[in-house]
From TrEMBL:
Protein's name according to its UniProt entry: Undecaprenyl-diphosphatase
Cross-referenced InterPro entries: UppP (IPR003824)
More details: Bacitracin is thought to be involved in the inhibition of peptidoglycan synthesis by sequestering undecaprenyl diphosphate, thereby reducing the pool of lipid carrier available.
Top-rank taxon, per record: Bacteria
Annotated source species: Fervidibacillus halotolerans
Amino acid sequence: MESFIVLVKYAFLGILQGITEPIPVSSSGHLVIVQKLFGIGTNEDMSFEILMNFASLLAVLLLFKKDILSLAKGSIDYIVTRRDEKKASFLFVFYLIIATVPAGVVGILFEDEIAETFKDLHYLAGALFITGFALWMIRNLKGRKGEKNISITDALVVGVAQSFALIPGISRSGATIVAALGIGMKRETAFLFSFLLYIPVSLGTAILSFKDFQVNELLIPNTIAFILSFIFSYISLKWFKGIVERGNLKYFAYYCFALSILLFIIT
């Protein structure tokens, strides 16, 4: 019976991670909530978190495989041939690298302190409210900048916005898409830039955290959670893509407002 309960707990956490990682509601915030209010969590230090993030990373790589291959091929062609028609791909990749820097620096220097400081549910409620407010403010923006019109300043603005997502309750996808739309990117471009930016950040986190990864007696529950996180991350990504393109981010603002108010009431 106890082993069945463990399987259900890990399956639930895998599904929760998968659904909430891509959408702008803060997956880290939701994991804190279920752990604090319902006692549903893990005792594996970083191992479980590493697995779940890696599952979501694989889902992103699968959904964007054509874009990734196209940008990689175009960038290599530009480096080798210097053909102008390939320059846009090279610059897009370069700007992704630039945008990775702010969150990388802040994460290396302050991630532990930020996680410790903002783990209280009152802070989390406030952060969710800020996420909702930001989503509400840009709900009607469409933008005109496509992939070929992004500048280094745009990349830095989105990168700085991503660094705020180290705070539980501040959504990474929400912060980057809000910033991208706020500086005039098209919805499709904002979505693409946001999730391609997720790849180096997630991969870097996985590499830096690999030393903390342990395979233990919970191999089967971990495997189930990993598979479910991958499946639901992919489904959630495709669903969220349509929502961004249709300009329906306001519904996530409503959700963040409601969850924030609920947390303030019950804590």
